[in-house]
Amino acid sequence: MTLGAINWFNNEKGFGTIQTVCSGTVFLHINSFYRRPLGELKRKQIVAFKKKTTTDQGESRATGCKLLETSADFGFLMTLLGQKTMVDIRVAKGNKTSEPDEEHYCLLKHGTLQLFSDRPERSFIDTVIHYFDKQLEEARFIQFCTYLEEIAIPLIKTDDREMLEQTLYCHFYANLTAGILFQAWKHHAFRYIAYTEGMDYEIPEEIIIAHRDELGKAEWDRIRQYSYGPTFFSSE
């Protein structure tokens, strides 16, 4: 599935366009939705869809469309992790004879608002925890936490943002896997598993061995300082 933002849509005629990061402008018809949205479609709404080329000139249209509406759609949004997420949305000027302006638009940011702006904090927490437990690939853990820290958590209505962060990070710690621990260690991102920031921690030697192909010189130099460092290198 590809994600994009509605560039414009005529609800009376039932068609418009979607703007995407990589595929450019894609034609959108109301009949392309698996289930029609309850309300009118609006500019900037985020849509998940499959792209279909319809002409010899390479024109594209959206099929199998899904408007991001519920917590169950959070997985669609997370496909954007690690990708470029900025698109340019046309903004019509008051003077119809002039060319429209373009507005830079972050799909991750506005997709998060679309899903959670009218929902309680607990809904966001439950959605994030469910995605972490059931869908998150260990190799994308840092990208996921960076998204939470820099985009999602600042957007969520809460009385205590720090407590919201710690609720999530403590869950990540309580459900820690060897792969997640390795990612936190490699990227010096122990705060994402509720460890004290700014400190280094030795991780079990067997985790180092399991991920040895992912280590560079900086990581090997770091390991030399650990309690098992001399033994580890003497056995190489």
From TrEMBL:
<protein>
    <recommendedName>
        <fullName>CSD domain-containing protein</fullName>
    </recommendedName>
</protein>
<dbReference type="InterPro" id="IPR012340">
    <property type="entry name" value="NA-bd_OB-fold"/>
</dbReference>
<feature type="domain" description="CSD">
    <location>
        <begin position="4"/>
        <end position="58"/>
    </location>
</feature>
<dbReference type="InterPro" id="IPR002059">
    <property type="entry name" value="CSP_DNA-bd"/>
</dbReference>
<dbReference type="Pfam" id="PF00313">
    <property type="entry name" value="CSD"/>
</dbReference>
